[in-house]
Specification:
By secondary structure, the protein is an alpha/beta fold. It is about 45% helix and about 15% strand. It has a 5-stranded parallel sheet. The protein has a two-stranded antiparallel sheet with strand order 3-4. A two-stranded antiparallel sheet has the order 6-7. The mean pLDDT is about 90.
Amino acid sequence: MTDDLKSVLVKAKEEIAKVIIGQDQVIDSALIAIFTGHHALIEGVPGVAKTLLVRTLAHVLGCEFGRIQFTPDLMPADIIGTHVFNLQKNNFSLVKGPIFTSFLLADEINRAPAKTQSALLQAMQERTVTIDRRTHPLPDNFTVFATQNPIEFQGTYPLPEAQVDRFMLKIPMQHPSREEELTLARRMLGADSPEAVLKSGVVQAVISAETLTMLRRQLAEITVKEELTAYLVDIVRQTRKHQGVLVGAGPRATQALLLSSRAHAALRGRDFVTPDDIKAQAVAVLGHRIILRPEYEIEGLAIEEVVQQILQEVTVPR
């Protein structure tokens, strides 16, 4: 890993901290998703700065930002675009939808019907969209940050497992601590509220979209020893054997855990992966891919507890 990647990650976190108060782990997870070229599912109640976080990330990393508010009546054409007849030119011209951006916030994604979710699924997997049988590429840095409200289920559609599996990480966004919320309250009394700071120009872009594409390739220089690769594979495979698990994580989870562990090491300023990097990413990568047996869910067993049990069952390499 070059010094360029290290310095960019440090500067990016410094600039983001000017707007987002606390939420260090959330910021790290978002940067991991971006620099590995994958997508993230953010879960949190309204008002914890989910939208502001993605807007800030886009600004700091020099990328375009787009937002789609998902509703039950949203159709695929509303997000990917459609051809509209142009009276002046006497032909049909393509009007691109909001999905043609770099960082896309899919707000309350579980409110959209299955047909619309499937349109987003193609974009997430292939980074292309099909409009009237013609395929159009999306930007190289296309990243979806989808949000879900964990406490509201009325009028929602459960995400299919195939789509959930496309998200590298599930990022829980909690309420701030008392000190952080007190800092927010004080800033709101002055002229430096988080939204005002972002609009004021104080927050600087540390790189451009083109540089981000180049820096992503540098993650390949981070060393992962063979025994750690085997350790990682054993963790994923153990999710399929745990007595409380009905459906374990698949091979895509192995890829996600490997790539996210590399990025986690980069965030810590190292050019090699340790077992702690793998453990740190295990819950975020595996939690939303595991389905518990009904009897264990009734007993109140949490996914996080299952993942921690699995980590204890697999021998850590020396």
